[in-house]
Write a structure and sequence with these properties.
The protein is elongated and about 40 Å long. The protein has a two-stranded antiparallel ribbon. It is 40% helix and 13% strand. The protein has a domain of 30 residues. The protein is built from 2 helices and 2 strands; from the N terminus they run ββαα. It is of the alpha+beta class.
C-alpha cells in the first residue's frame, strides 16, 4: 500500500510517513480486521517526536 507524507511547516515541524489506512485510523475510522493499524500510526508519530524533540531537557 502507498504511504503518504504529512509535513507541518514551521518551527519544530516533523515529518511522518503513514499509509492511508493509518491516517484514516487516526481520524476515528476503525479497522475491525486489524486493530493494530492505529497503534502503528501512533507509534510512528511518537517515534518522530522523540527523534525531533528532547523531552529530557528542562523546559525553557
Amino acid at each position: 500500500m502507498n504511504s503518504q507524507t504529512v509535513v507541518a511547516e514551521g518551527k519544530g515541524s516533523i515529518e511522518v510517513q503513514l499509509t492511508p489506512d493509518e491516517a484514516l485510523s487516526l481520524t476515528g475510522v476503525e479497522f475491525n480486521g486489524n486493530p493494530k493499524i492505529k497503534i502503528e500510526a501512533q507509534r510512528k508519530i511518537r517515534s518522530a517526536f522523540e527523534k525531533k524533540f528532547d523531552f529530557n531537557s528542562p523546559a525553557r
